[in-house]
Amino acid sequence: MTQQISSMVITHTKASIEEMEKAWHGDIEYVLKSLYSHEYVYECAVLKTCNRVEVYVVSPKASSVLFHFAKDMGASSHIVEFYDHEDSLKHLLRLASGLESMIVGEDQILGQIKDLYTTAKNVGTIGPALDTAFSKAIQVGKKARTETRINKGSVSIGSAAVDLADEILGGLTGKNILVIGTGEMGTLVARALAHKDMDVVYLANRTFETAKQLAEEIGGDAVLFDNIDECIRNADVVICATAAPHFVLRKSTIEKAMDDRNKELLLIDIATPRDIEPEISEIEHVKLHNIDSLRRINEKNMEMRRGEAKKVDALIEEEFELLNTQYKRQKADGLISQLYGQVHNVREREKQRAINRLSSYHTIGDIESEVLDDLTHSIVNKILAEPTKMLRKAAENDEDELMDTASRLFNLDNKK
Q1: Nearest to residue 233, comparing CAs of 259, 197, 270, 268?
Q2: Is 49 annotated as a binding-site member?
Q3: Could you list the active site residues?
Q4: Secondary structure letter of residue 218 according to DSSP
Q5: Residue that is last in its domain, among 153, 168, 189
Q6: pLDDT value of residue 1
């Protein structure tokens, strides 16, 4: 019997950025190994992004495992959702298609799911149940983006940050922009900015060569990380997107920069954990926005993409049914595999017995052995063809009683 998938989900829909930060400890591999070491966890996968923490497990005691995991994380009960098998699958398909993202239809989440899947496989925590689920989710995510227009417009937190700056300033024409961090999120910001008519884009990163390469790609200027104070004095907008575990911009830095200028400064922090010290918002003529501010961008996109989201919903329902059928067939495939293995062991023993008996009368050559092998193989396959068909049909129709009867009749393990 195929094991059931359960999940625990913390997302931007219920949790603030502060709550999200508190609900995560360690890196992905550490969390995977910690979960997998649990006696009742047979498979597991973890997804961590700037606005979600999700845990998927295959376990006979999933409710208890996930509840205690959430408790150990220190996650408040009002921000955690627990899903059973079917809801976990539907959520995963919606997630891969971009329907659960803050920016509906964004492409970045699909790459993040692929990375999570690869990491979990490399660590060794993915088994047949999660392998089927994530393979299907990735396939559906690609299909949603090729068969609908769900990912047109602002399709990432990075591009939404640029749209937010554009909206607040009434356009970015002639503005000076500083992007701190040129990793995955910073790159998305920089590429979104490349399509705007600005005065100059400065890119700063602790590894100067990385900043330089991205600057050449978008036609901006790379600056040394140690020189960002000077850039801040001249910037109209600063967008922070580093992976630093501490604040990159502190209140004292911005206070000093504001002493030497006579125009407002817009700061947008899209990092998790945050790059910008929250107290900076207290400084006069400084506007600070973080990921929570991007909810407004999402609302606009949701309105624009409502029609496309309906198309994706229909696609997901169709694919969910196919996935369910696939899982049901797997319930039968486990029994069928055991049955074939059991009968083929008998076939092999009896074939060898026949060869030994015949060998006592005359020499048995390769051709005779091959004929006997083909004969016994064919007999087994013909005998098992109808039971195989009936078991698969029973699984698809949820006829568990017939499956149980077959497992008892042939002494098979219906839990595999």
Answers
A1: 259
A2: yes
A3: 50
A4: H
A5: 153
A6: 42
